[in-house]
Each structure stands twice: as structure tokens, then as C-alpha cells.
Amino acid sequence: MKTLWTPWRMEHVLGTAARSRGCLFEPPGDKPFAGEQLLLYRDRLTVVLLNRFPYANGHLLVAPRRHLADITELADRENSALMAMLQHCCAILRRRLRPDGINIGLNLGETAGAGTPDHLHFHVVPRWEGDHNFMTVVADIRTIPQHIRHTFELLLPDFQELLKAENDHE
Ligand SMILES: [Zn+2]
User: Fold this and answer.
1) Catalytic residue among 119, 121, 147, 150
2) 88 an active-site residue?
3) What pLDDT score was predicted for residue 60?
4) Domains of the chain, each with CATH number or no CATH
């Protein structure tokens, strides 16, 4: 079975039409979560969004709060926070969506497939046995928004728990 991990394909296939003004990873305001922007989590250092153009159900985007393009620009505390957030994302996805595996990837630069090359972001993509047919399964693009909304509601409580733990810690 050939398994090809190409989350960037969806960014090309669907384009960026729905992208709002400003940076995707900096939703306006200060709220720690926001349904309209599919913002699941935001604290001082990290941001987690549900990808509006998912390669698989539960496709998360994990970014530093700071607008920076390259991995070499990350400060130590951002490195730690991002790695910890990737761990949390894996735990939450496993708990709620029961994937068989998870891909974590970083596309640096447009040539490498980054749809938003000027703000570094990790892709966290849950995988299921046989999911290489995902594109066929969701060929009816109109069904996706509802699907995404449902997944957002499913995952949000876990991220709110995380935020509470983070706030208690401070
Ligand atoms: Zn940004």
C-alpha cells in the first residue's frame, strides 16, 4: 500500500479563498479560542488551529504565537512550548479520534509546500489504516465545513482543560 503524506496538496487544491485578512495564525483579539477561526488554543507562546483545508479529519496546525518564518528563529522557551504542545495534540487526537498513527510535519518555504510560508507551523495529521483514499471519500467538498465544525466541538474541551492547567500553573 502506498501512503503519501501531502497535506499541502489540499492548500493548492482548495486555494486560499477562505483565508481572512491578516495572518492565519494570528486571529484578531486575544481570546484563547474562537470557533469562527477554528482556533482551538492560544496562550502566550503557542497557537493551535484546526486546519480549514484538512488532509484528514482532525488535521491540526500548531504554531508559535510569534510571527516568524524559520525554525532557527525560535527561542528556547518557544521550542519547549511547541514540543509540549505537539505532545498534547497527539494525546488529545488519540483520545478523541483514535487514529492508528499520526504524522507531524513542518514545511519550510513555499518550495517545501508551505501554504503560509511566513508563519512557521507544524501539521499534525491523524492517520487511519487505509486512509489514503481520503480524497475520494470527501470528494464532495460541501460536506467538509460541517465535518470540521463537529471535530472542532469534539476537540475544544480538551484544549480548554489544557488552558486551565496552564493558567493554574502560572
Ligand atoms: Zn503570523
Assistant:
1) 121
2) no
3) 96
4) 30-164 (3.30.428.10)
